[in-house]
Design a protein that fits this description.
single chain, 459 residues, alpha/beta, Isoleucyl-tRNA Synthetase, Domain 1, 3 domains, 4-stranded parallel β-sheet, 4-stranded antiparallel β-sheet, 15% strand
Length: 459
């Protein structure tokens, strides 16, 4: 089945054809590890994880790189303020990022390159850009000369004046052109830095990804480059310019993908509004799968509105899906394949809302099926489809007992069920009903089947 992806560069959906059908290459801009990840940072991680899963089911090998920016002015300042090396900051927050994304079901990438491990590659690329006339040194800095690349602006399609304003930098007197951007900048003695042909310093932001892509994938186009919509300009625009010029005009990337923003209660997420929502905090309040489902509930290219009601609805959806799986616990699923309609949805530019609708249709069919072979097939499809979305990854009984409020005490519930069983054995129906009603008032539903009592948290 052909996969169609919307290419930001061409502004149209295209059939995805990797350069090498045996080896797909994908690079996604990852975290800058100076703080905990917010829900906006989590969206590309979940979106491109879903694409990674789809590509793994469609091609023999997928090499997925998600970089880590572990040197940055915010990291440097934090390390300086605390009197510690930058690694003390970056290692802490990278570990937190891994834990938070793991809670959302995000698979580890094939490669996780770090900027600090690629300083030599960064310096080498800058040297080539200077040598071929696309960059210049001035006042201890090295800048890329934007007019030297005639196709600058092809990704963002912005007016030149808008691009300069959008770069959010002052037009310094040392620039040959207002749009020129920094490749290398000097570091004072009390700041992290590395020796270079231009003195002790540190890399600019944009050059990092170009150098890491070259080091890990070689010269020549990668198949997919992804990130948030906010990276189109200037970050990805600058990557195209410097990589193309460093490689004598060779194509840098074949397909560009960008996910939309996450808003909080219909407002832009920002520090000034005080509505920055950290994944680290959210996973204390809601299951990771529910958070992931919210992030997949809108098409990845569209804005997503994060609300408490959206999380509640996601938990209810997962309850219904897990109940369908639980109803099939007596059948062996075997090795299943995703259903054709589900695959068609994901292959249509990662249409996760449609894929989720297909998943619910299969769950509805499973709830009605009586034929053993049909029930086994539906169970296999639920699991295979769920894996592609990173959902339905838990034991159904465990999920149904663990999705309620944080104060649910499983041991206490089991003790009350035992008391109710004893009351029923002595035919004390009033006590039995009292215990059932008491648990129901706490949001716990009892189900008596074949002489056994099970429980779950109500949706």
């Amino acid at each position: 089945m052909d996969i169609h992806l919307y290419n930001t560069l061409t502004r149209q959906k295209e059939v995805f054809r990797p350069l090498d059908p045996q080896r797909v290459t994908m690079y996604v801009c990852g975290p800058t590890v100076y703080n905990y990840a917010h829900i906006g940072n989590a969206r590309p991680a979940v979106v491109f994880d879903t694409l990674y899963r789809l590509l793994q089911r469609s091609f023999p090998k997928v090499v997925y790189a998600r970089n880590v920016t572990d040197v940055d002015d915010r990291i440097n300042q934090s390390a300086k303020d605390q009197g510690v090396p930058i690694s003390a900051i970056t290692e802490r927050y990278l570990a937190a990022y891994h834990a938070d994304m793991g809670a959302l079901g995000v698979l580890p990438p094939t490669i996780e390159p770090k900027v600090t491990q690629h300083i030599d590659a960064i310096i080498a690329m800058i040297e080539r850009l200077v040598a071929n006339g696309h960059a210049y040194e001035t006042d201890g800095q090295v800048l890329f000369h934007v007019p030297s690349f005639k196709d600058y602006g092809q990704l963002s399609r912005r007016d030149r004046d808008d691009m300069i304003a959008g770069a959010r930098v002052d037009v310094a007197s040392y620039k040959k052109d207002p749009a020129d951007f920094t490749l290398w900048k000097p570091s004072p003695p009390d700041m992290t830095g590395w020796d270079s042909p231009w003195g002790r310093g540190r890399p600019g932001w944009h050059i990092e990804c170009s150098a890491m892509i070259e080091r890990n994938f070689g010269i020549g186009p990668i198949d997919i480059h992804g990130g948030g919509h906010d990276l189109i300009f200037p970050h990805h625009e600058n990557e195209i310019a410097q990589s193309t010029c460093a490689h004598n005009g060779a194509l840098f990337c074949r397909t560009w993908l960008h996910n939309g923003f996450v808003n909080i209660n219909a407002e832009k997420m920002s520090k000034s509004l005080g509505n920055v929502t950290l994944v680290h905090d959210l996973i204390e309040l809601a299951p990771g799968e529910a958070i992931r489902l919210v992030l997949l509930s809108a098409h990845y290219r569209q804005p997503l509105d994060w609300t408490e009601s959206a999380v509640k609805d996601a938990r209810a959806q997962l309850d219904r899906l897990y109940r369908a799986l639980d109803s099939l616990k007596d059948v062996e699923a075997g090795i299943g394949r995703a259903s054709d309609s589900f695959m068609a949805a994901l292959a249509d530019d990662i249409n996760t809302p449609k894929a989720l609708a297909e998943l619910h249709q299969i769950a509805n069919a499973a709830n009605k099926a009586t034929d053993a072979a049909e029930r086994a097939r539906l169970k296999a499809e639920l699991l295979a489809n769920g894996w592609l979305l990173g959902l339905l990854q838990q034991d159904p009984a465990t999920w149904l007992k663990g999705t309620g409020a944080a104060d649910v005490d499983a041991a206490a519930i089991e003790a009350l069920i035992a008391e109710r069983k004893a009351a029923r054995a002595r035919k004390d129906w009033a006590e039995s009903d009292r215990i059932r009603d008491d648990l129901a008032a706490r949001g716990i539903l009892l189900e008596d089947k074949a002489g056994e009592t099970t429980w779950r948290v109500m949706s």
